[in-house]
Write a structure and sequence with these properties.
The protein is an alpha+beta fold. Helix content is 35%, strand content 23%. The strands form three sheets. A seven-stranded mixed beta sheet has the order 8-10-7-11-9-12-13, sandwiched between helices. Strands 3-6-4-5 form a four-stranded mixed beta sheet. A two-stranded antiparallel sheet has the order 1-2. Helix 2 packs parallel to helix 3, helix 2 packs parallel to helix 6 and helix 4 packs across helix 5. It starts with 7 loop residues before the first helix and ends in an 11-residue tail after the last strand.
């Protein structure tokens, strides 16, 4: 096992080795009291915490997967606005005796995603605490569509659709918790991957913002059952889809555990899929822009969420529910 960092300066050197400090969007980079940024007039801003034993466990997450996912969950919020991420700041805290190799690998995973998206790291803070904590604030700009897509924009009889898999990450969490990393990656590889290294759907969100008929969008992070009411406000929804909608690995895991595959699909959290709404006549344009979009059902004036005509049971994930 490698030794811990001997000082804050050593930690900062590891960050500087992985994240460039020169970028067209940074007029003054890291190293002063503040960075100075070149930003558009209007920005979307999001902040997420990623905490050991709350959002991840080191017994089945590799360090590079932890760093990747810490940034990915923020990127997903921008995708859910149809926005393009343009920069982020990073707060890091953890045990002083944590091996330097752990932090270096976590930073490697984060840096690879940042480089893929051309995202500059503008600064942040370091601290010591009992468990590993990432706090990331990310900002994003409007894409070619010239707008941010928001929640509570649906209208009665609109079509609901999603981009990305629902339930796959929750199934992966179950498999990782019950079978360990090796068993989960062997038996349910797509489920495990969805939980450990979720896809970021920035390009799809930008494409949807460019479709005039798309009224609203959000990312599904707490499960569709909990996020859909947030998306619809005072409206409701009738959901209808066939067995082919359920991912084969989710169906297989459900069959082996006695779970309901539809409930797992609709209630499971950490999907980081996109949930959108448009008039039915606009859905062909949605498919042209994002061929992987799939219909979920329709918006109703009647409150509540129903699947196949029956009230949807299960509330999704909530940090503060007991």
């Amino acid at each position: 096992m490698s030794a811990p960092f001997v000082s804050e300066d050593a930690f900062l050197a590891a960050i500087s080795a992985r994240f460039p400090n020169v970028h067209p969007r940074m007029l003054l980079g890291r190293g002063d009291d503040c960075a100075v940024l070149a930003c558009p007039q209007t920005l979307a801003v999001t902040t997420d915490l990623f905490i050991e034993d709350v959002h991840f466990r080191t017994d089945y997450f590799l360090p590079e997967e932890i760093g990747y996912k810490a940034l990915a969950v923020n990127v997903s919020d921008a995708a859910g606005m149809g926005a393009r991420p343009v920069g982020f700041s990073l707060g890091l805290a953890g045990p002083p005796d944590a091996p330097a190799a752990f932090w270096e690998s976590a930073l490697d995973g984060m840096a690879r995603l940042a480089a893929q998206l051309d995202l500059p790291l503008t600064g942040g803070d370091l601290n010591a605490c009992a468990t590993v904590v990432f706090s990331i604030t990310l900002w994003a700009e409007k894409g070619p569509g010239g707008r941010f897509l928001t929640r509570k924009a649906a209208r009665e009889e609109d079509m609901l659709f999603c981009v990305g898999e629902l339930g796959l990450s929750a199934a992966g969490l179950w498999a990782l918790s019950e079978q360990g990393r090796e068993g989960a990656r062997r038996d349910y590889p797509q489920c495990a991957l969805a939980h450990l290294r979720p896809r970021v759907l920035v390009d799809q969100g930008l494409a949807l913002a460019g479709v005039p008929g798309v009224r609203g969008l959000m990312d599904v992070s707490d499960g569709l059952a909990r996020d859909l009411p947030r998306f619809l406000g005072s409206l409701g929804a009738d959901l209808e889809f066939g067995p082919e909608f359920v991912h084969p690995e989710v169906a297989r895991l459900a069959a082996g555990t006695g779970a309901d595959p539809v409930r797992l699909t609709l209630v499971g959290g950490e999907d980081y899929a996109l949930l959108g709404v448009c008039p039915p006549q606009a859905f062909p344009q949605v498919l042209e822009a994002v061929p992987e979009a799939r219909p979920l059902g329709r918006v109703t004036a009647r409150p509540g969420i129903r699947f196949a005509g029956l009230p949807l049971q299960g509330a999704g994930f909530d940090h503060f529910s007991r």
